[in-house]
Amino acid sequence: MAKRSGDPRAAVRQISLFQNPEVPRPYKKAVQVVHSKPRAPLSLVQRKVSNAWLKNAVQTPPDSEGWWSLRISDLAEDIGFDSNNREYLRDSALELMRIVFEWDVVAPMGKRAKWNASVLFPDVQMTSDQIRYRISSQLKDQVLNPEMYAMIDMTIVKKFRKAPSLAIYEFCVRFERIGKTAEIPWQEFRDMVLGETSESKSYLEYKYFKQKVLKPSIAEVNSQADISIVLKETLAGRRIVNIAFEVSKEGPPQLAMVIDDERVLVLVGEMVKIGLLQSEARSFAGKYSPEEISAALDFLKRRMSDKRASPVENPAAYLRQALKNNWAVVDASSDPGGKPKAPAAGQASKADKLLEQYMAEQLKQAGLYFKELDPSDQDELITRYNAQQQINGLKIAKKAGKAGQIAFFTWLGMETWGHPSAEQLLSFATDRLVT
């Protein structure tokens, strides 16, 4: 057996420097489907397949006859199906085609337009490498253009190992911004999670349903999802009648702050126009005062109109540096954004080493910056990166290798902050000496 060399912990540290969580892959799932009640039990694979098909339908157009297509290999990747048992996948899809759902059962009966029930996928075809399916005519419009929806992240969906956990996650994430789900009779919720079947009817007492289904599912949601949920029970006397969940957001902030100041909204719009992402501009609106942002924008405009100075190749990167370093109060005759001066010949090796260290730090900062962005902005950046990346092996797909991640975050660092100026390198070197 070959002997291992080196410290394995060093390898782990090196890998963890560039590894990031899988890129979020959210889609809008119509609330009618989220709050549905199946008339037969749904397996974990069927719940995942249903999500993959709905996401594909929301994001890609059907053919002229209303069929959507999905490669089986892509479906397996979407749902985390790592088995070669394609027969099981096919059987699950065929069984899913036969299951009848009662739609939007959470809405009070008086507020429902009408009672609806149907299969979700009435037609399914499968070849050796592809699945084709159609969506129920009752729900197609709501599925493709939902007015009310839950943002379901497929990177989270694929993590679940219990079907009830996935059902509870979908129910709760719908109410993430509100902070608490609707109250619902526990028997109705039991049937939504397990299906209106003999299995669910075996839990005739709430205490058994709570012990066997709710508790382990809540634990899995809290460990695997990006939300945290707490069960709340409503009693009538000594009897549990309704249940609900408190829902809070976990993980990186999604920058969903509400801006009601018209002046700030205008500044956010100006920042977006010069190239900042929407979520980043909103973040700056919370981090800097309107006066600071306005001054930085004016400073950038003066700098761009100065014919004597070198061109501003990346206005968004320049604005970030202007805000961070408070350039707006610096004498406008100076040129903080100019290109760094070339070092003397005897200093070249040290300068190269400093630049290398700076870029390594910027690589880490780019990873942290990326995680703070909204999923839609993350998708936009990946699309822009892939469009300019000519080497297929370095493009970002559903999973990216180490080389692809390094290339992406290197590009993101340059796209976000630009080439470091002499002042930035000096500041970076000073900080390292101090620490």
Write a brief structural summary.
With 435 residues, this protein is of the alpha+beta class. The protein contains 19 helices and eleven strands.
Structural commentary:
It contains 19 helices and eleven strands. It is an alpha+beta fold and 435 residues long. It folds into four domains: 20-158, Orthogonal Bundle (Arc Repressor Mutant, subunit A), CATH 1.10.10; 159-251, Winged helix-like DNA-binding domain superfamily/Winged helix DNA-binding domain (Arc Repressor Mutant, subunit A), CATH 1.10.10; 255-338, no CATH class; 346-435, no CATH class. The strands form four sheets. Strands 2-4-5 form a three-stranded antiparallel sheet. Strands 3-7-6 form a three-stranded antiparallel sheet. A hairpin with a 2-residue loop joins β10 and β11. It starts with 7 loop residues before the first helix and ends with a helix.
Listing every helix as H and every strand as E from the N terminus to the C terminus, the arrangement reads HEHEHEHHEEEEHEHHEHHHEEHHHHHHHH
Our estimate of the beta-strand percent is: 5-15%
Number of domains: 4
Note the total helix count. 19
What structural class do you assign from the helix and strand content? alpha+beta
Strand order of the largest sheet: 2-4-5
Tally of strands: 11
By CATH, the superfamily of the largest domain comes out as Winged helix-like DNA-binding domain superfamily/Winged helix DNA-binding domain
Describe the largest sheet: 3 strands, antiparallel
Shape: elongated
